[in-house]
Amino acid sequence: MNQKPRATRSWLKPLVAAVAVAAVVGAGAVYVILPAGRNAAAAARCPSDAALIARLKPLAKGEVAAMLVDDHPKPLPALSFKDADGKPVTLADFRGRAVLFNMWATWCAPCRAEMPALDTLQAELGGKNFDVVAVSVDATGPDKPRKFFHDLNLRHLALHTDGSGDVFRTMQSIGRGVGLPTSLLVDRGGCEIGYMPGPAQWASPDAKALVEAALPEG
Q1: 190-205 confidence digits (pLDDT tens)
Q2: How many CB atoms lie within 10 A of CB 2?
Q3: Which of 1, 111, 186, 218 is geometrically suited to a Cys-Cys bond with 104, CB 3.0 to 4.6 A?
């Protein structure tokens, strides 16, 4: 089962007005998808790339069949978190490469199952054109996520954390991140081109083919 953030954390309370429900068949869970509320003016910085969308849509199958490929890239709000040394990092720092942005927590069982596959994906495809950016939303700080990385022998993913809840709240505000894990496929311009509500086998050939199709040329 995918897990929703614990209700005891005030900053993880779900938004009230749900307008659509999507079943994540492979994970056997139900996610609530809320209206995106994207600003039309901001959308101008995310021009449509018909060729990219045409490449991606047929590849959202098998282990990544739950990936919702956007017909039009969507702008993302500013997202700020911290690296392993506690220094500020933003999603904008990864402009110029494709990104799989993932939100997870140490207490989320599907996240625990998914993280080794994300680590493998980073090992195999990470570089100048692609990064997995996995952000822990544990409210207790970086110690538990750091131990989690050690216990699971995650050696290729960079440790990113956000104990403030800002990332999760911001993602909720655009209808992303109602449950954990949540992943977004982001293009080189920082625009959302795909949304995965729930876990996936990211080390699978299906996942790698999808990600490779999103990589910028050159």
Answers
A1: 999 999 999 999 999 9
A2: 22
A3: 111
Report the C-alpha dihedral over residues 69, 70, 74, 80, rounded to 10 degrees: -20
Alpha-carbon distance 26 to 13, whole Å? 25
CA distances from 97 to 132, 168, 218 (A): 10, 23, 10
Q: Which residues contact 153 (CB under 8 A, 6 or more apart)?
A: none
CA–CA dist 60, 207 (Å, integer)? 8
The answer to whether 88 and 171 have CB atoms below 8 angstroms apart is no
Taking the complete model, does pTM exceed 0.85, yes or no? no
* Cα–Cα distance, 190 to 173 (Å, whole number): 18
Residue 53's Cβ-side half-sphere holds a number of Cα atoms within 13 Å equal to: 16
Q: What CA–CA distance (Å, rounded) separates 210 from 74?
A: 18
